[in-house]
Amino acid sequence: MTQSLKPEEVASVIQAQLKSFTQPLTLESEGTILQIGDGIARIYGLQEAMMGELLEFPPLPNGEAAFGLVLNLEEDNVAAALLSASEHIKEGDSVKRTGRVAEVPVGPALLGRVVNSVGQPLDGKGPIPFEETRPVERIAAGVTKRQPVKEPLQTGLKSIDSMIPIGRGQRELVIGDRQTGKTALLVDTIINQKHADPPVKCIYVAIGQKQSTVANVIDTLEKHGAMEYTTIVSATASDPAPMQFIAPYAGCAIGEYFAENGQHAAIFYDDLSKHAVSYRELSLLIRRPPGREAYPGDVFYLHSRLLERALKYSNELGGGSLTAMPVIETQAGDVSAYIPTNVISITDGQIYLESDLFYAGIRPAINVGLSVSRVGGKAQESMMKSVAGRLRIDLAQYRELASFAQFGSDLDKGTLARLTRGERLTEVLKQPQYVPMPVEDQVAIIFAAVRGYLDDVDLENIYKFESEFLPWLKSKYPQILHTLKTTRKLDDDTDDKLDKAVGEFKKLFVEGKAAIQPSEKEQMADLGSTG
Fold first, then answer.
1. Residue 173 is inside which H or E element, if any?
2. 138 catalytic, yes or no?
3. What predicted TM-score, i.e. pTM, was given to this entire model?
4. Domain 105-380 falls in which CATH fold?
5. What is the C-alpha separation between 147 and 506, in angstroms, rounded?
6. Domain boundary assignment for the chain
7. Which of 16, 28, 176, 452 has its C-alpha lying 20 to 30 A from 479's C-alpha?
8. Per-residue pLDDT tens for 208-250?
9. Which of 374, 421, 424, 451 is an active site residue?
10. Separation between Cα atoms, residue 432 and residue 111, nearest integer Å
């Protein structure tokens, strides 16, 4: 039987043990590679390493520094993913801690540049003179730092700005099968920010795309003068999975710089399906347990912590905003798959692009029934709300009637009128690629359609009517568009003037006497040919 200690002896033992805890621990800042393969290194001896910390590996053969990203902190080793080629690294090599987490340069100097996931230039224009860096991962701002989304972010696309308005600070998902115009929609939106007031800085993040696809996007933006306010973050399919994994977070950090300085920014993630695949690859390689469809259990958190960083700051913090437009690619239109449902539940609405509509020539191929913006009319211009209020309902009714009308020929006058109006509205909402339209021009042509001025115009002449009407209105009645542009409202007086102007042009159009200047004709022809 052991002898029990007296209370004062127990106290002295506890005090002695507490003193041993206060002595500084000497932990290694340099470790040794235990195992290397598939771009994943397991390192012994980095007891103080942080999650997400950059580690310095032996330099590449050309002398460039090689870094890795800590992804797992285990009991006896650290698992890190290499951000560059790993052929020159072998077991037994030493690895050093850098003491800093993955970060990216930020600031106005990045506008007009193409960079990789860690901010290194890829465009051959020399180094970027940045003054500040930010960690790629950070906690999203709390609700007390935010305010409701109420300012519109114009895409320049009639079908979106009229029926699915996007607000500055919103998260709007673009979803659809491959080759349905998702990237084209993003590029249109970027081009349209050229005339935004106040201006919107754009960050386009290419994740897992072909290099040729990214090059085409850059070429298109340069042709339209949009690169001067745009940063491209490129992590193509040939880049390592860790670079694809951190690319959207790096782009978000670049956008947050502008939002926190009272400016407006929009970030486009193209696309998060490939981002999830790159994270799945990393997770399986570091032996995290696979879950549904082999994705790790935290794949929802992967995207939620990224998209929660989109926001509209309160006026006390400058009122800046960061709008997020992520892309998700579906397989055969299956929006109920794992990753699509995850991102749909995180975002504030979705724009659904449908293959059948695309192949039928309706472009952008937006399914109005499945597309929604949960911010609603608060982020829509007053003048657009007044002309496009019933547009969505009319189109939905038309689609329903059209599906029944194909089975019978005996239709009453009311049904025929609705079908005729729906066909004209559908035709008006078509738009050539890379020709975004100012919102006042959208209001004018949608006004003509919803007021019935196009009901007796042949379908094949609708585009001709639009392409001649807008230049005619600008030359004959410029004050109408000027009033719409400055007041952003369609009051009774402007409504009457626009109604008379449309009626006057309709008469000239029917008689084949619609006046249009030659230079404007050529301009419209050029615009049409770009689509």
1. strand 173-176
2. no
3. 0.89
4. Rossmann fold (3.40.50)
5. 45
6. 30-100, 105-380, 386-530
7. 452
8. 999 999 999 999 999 999 999 999 999 999 999 999 999 999 9
9. 374
10. 27
